[in-house]
Amino acid sequence: GVPPASVAEFTLQGAGNQDWYDVSLVDGYNLPMRISNNVGCPVAECAKDLGPDCPAPLKGPYDSVGFPVGCKSACFANLDGNQGLCEDHDVCPLLT
Protein backbone atom coordinates (compact mmCIF):
# COMPACT_ATOMS: atom_id res chain seq x y z
CA GLY A 1 0.00 0.00 0.00
CA VAL A 2 0.85 3.66 0.01
CA PRO A 3 2.36 5.07 3.23
CA PRO A 4 1.32 5.71 5.84
CA ALA A 5 0.22 2.12 6.22
CA SER A 6 0.10 -0.37 9.08
CA VAL A 7 1.43 -3.63 7.65
CA ALA A 8 0.84 -7.29 8.50
CA GLU A 9 3.85 -9.33 7.41
CA PHE A 10 3.86 -13.10 6.93
CA THR A 11 6.75 -15.42 6.03
CA LEU A 12 5.68 -18.97 5.27
CA GLN A 13 8.24 -21.78 5.21
CA GLY A 14 11.10 -19.40 5.99
CA ALA A 15 14.47 -20.31 7.52
CA GLY A 16 14.29 -23.71 9.19
CA ASN A 17 10.89 -24.20 7.55
CA GLN A 18 9.42 -21.84 10.17
CA ASP A 19 6.46 -19.53 9.65
CA TRP A 20 6.76 -15.94 10.95
CA TYR A 21 4.35 -13.05 11.32
CA ASP A 22 4.48 -9.55 12.71
CA VAL A 23 2.83 -6.14 12.66
CA SER A 24 5.06 -3.39 11.28
CA LEU A 25 4.73 0.38 11.55
CA VAL A 26 7.95 1.12 9.66
CA ASP A 27 5.86 2.66 6.83
CA GLY A 28 3.71 4.67 9.25
CA TYR A 29 0.35 3.95 10.84
CA ASN A 30 -3.21 4.12 9.55
CA LEU A 31 -5.20 1.57 11.59
CA PRO A 32 -4.98 -0.67 14.64
CA MET A 33 -4.00 -4.21 13.75
CA ARG A 34 -3.89 -7.62 15.45
CA ILE A 35 -2.77 -11.03 14.18
CA SER A 36 -4.18 -13.80 16.35
CA ASN A 37 -4.20 -17.55 15.92
CA ASN A 38 -5.73 -20.73 17.28
CA VAL A 39 -2.56 -22.64 18.20
CA GLY A 40 -1.29 -20.68 21.20
CA CYS A 41 1.40 -18.64 19.45
CA PRO A 42 2.02 -15.07 20.64
CA VAL A 43 -0.32 -12.38 19.32
CA ALA A 44 1.26 -9.65 17.18
CA GLU A 45 -0.55 -6.36 17.49
CA CYS A 46 -0.62 -2.62 17.56
CA ALA A 47 -4.13 -2.41 18.94
CA LYS A 48 -3.96 1.18 20.20
CA ASP A 49 -5.25 3.94 17.95
CA LEU A 50 -2.05 5.95 17.49
CA GLY A 51 -3.82 8.69 15.52
CA PRO A 52 -4.68 10.97 18.47
CA ASP A 53 -1.09 10.76 19.79
CA CYS A 54 0.64 11.29 16.45
CA PRO A 55 3.12 14.22 16.61
CA ALA A 56 2.05 17.18 14.46
CA PRO A 57 4.89 16.85 11.89
CA LEU A 58 3.85 13.25 11.19
CA LYS A 59 0.06 13.70 10.95
CA GLY A 60 -1.61 13.06 7.62
CA PRO A 61 -2.94 12.46 5.13
CA TYR A 62 -6.23 14.13 5.95
CA ASP A 63 -9.79 13.20 5.00
CA SER A 64 -12.24 15.52 3.22
CA VAL A 65 -13.13 17.35 6.45
CA GLY A 66 -9.52 17.81 7.58
CA PHE A 67 -9.31 14.92 10.07
CA PRO A 68 -5.94 13.11 10.07
CA VAL A 69 -6.35 9.50 8.95
CA GLY A 70 -2.75 8.40 9.36
CA CYS A 71 0.58 8.96 11.04
CA LYS A 72 3.57 9.02 8.69
CA SER A 73 6.93 7.49 9.49
CA ALA A 74 9.83 9.92 9.84
CA CYS A 75 11.07 8.67 6.46
CA PHE A 76 7.92 9.72 4.62
CA ALA A 77 7.14 12.90 6.57
CA ASN A 78 9.83 14.80 4.65
CA LEU A 79 11.49 15.99 7.89
CA ASP A 80 14.89 16.16 6.19
CA GLY A 81 13.74 17.34 2.74
CA ASN A 82 14.19 13.89 1.17
CA GLN A 83 10.66 12.50 1.28
CA GLY A 84 10.53 8.75 0.83
CA LEU A 85 14.27 8.39 0.34
CA CYS A 86 14.91 6.28 3.43
CA GLU A 87 16.19 3.02 2.07
CA ASP A 88 18.01 2.38 5.36
CA HIS A 89 15.44 2.68 8.16
CA ASP A 90 18.28 2.81 10.71
CA VAL A 91 19.15 6.31 9.50
CA CYS A 92 15.70 7.86 9.13
CA PRO A 93 15.57 11.45 10.39
CA LEU A 94 14.77 11.81 14.06
CA LEU A 95 11.65 13.63 15.18
CA THR A 96 12.86 16.41 17.47
UniProtKB/TrEMBL annotation:
Pfam families in the record: Thaumatin
Disulfide bonds: C54-C71
SUPFAM superfamilies documented for this protein: Osmotin, thaumatin-like protein (SSF49870)
InterPro entries for this protein: Osmotin/thaumatin-like_sf (IPR037176), Thaumatin (IPR001938)
PROSITE patterns listed in its UniProt record: THAUMATIN_2 (PS51367)
Record key words, sorted: Disulfide bond
Coiled coil (residue ranges): none
Name the record gives this protein: Thaumatin-like protein
